[in-house]
Amino acid sequence: MGQVHARAMTRLLHHYPDAPLRPRLVAVAEPVDDERTRRAVDALGFEHVHTDWQSLVERDDVDVVCVTGPNFIHRDVAVAAAQAGKHLWVEKPAGRDAFETAEIVAAVEAAGVQAAAGFNYRNVPAVELAKELVASGRIGRVEHSTVRFLADYSADPDAALSWRFRTATSGTGVLGDLVSHAADLLRHVVADVEELVVDRATFIAQRREAVAGAMHYEKGAGELGDVENEDYVSALLRLADGSRAVLESSRVAVGEQNRYGLEVHGTEGSLSWDFRRMNELQVSTRGADGAYLNAFSTTRYATPGDGELGVFQPGANNPMGFDDLKVVEARRLVESIATGKPVGATVHDALSAARVVDAMITSSDEKKWVRL
Question: Which residues form the Gfo/Idh/MocA-like oxidoreductase N-terminal domain (predicted)?
Answer without folding.
Answer: 2-118
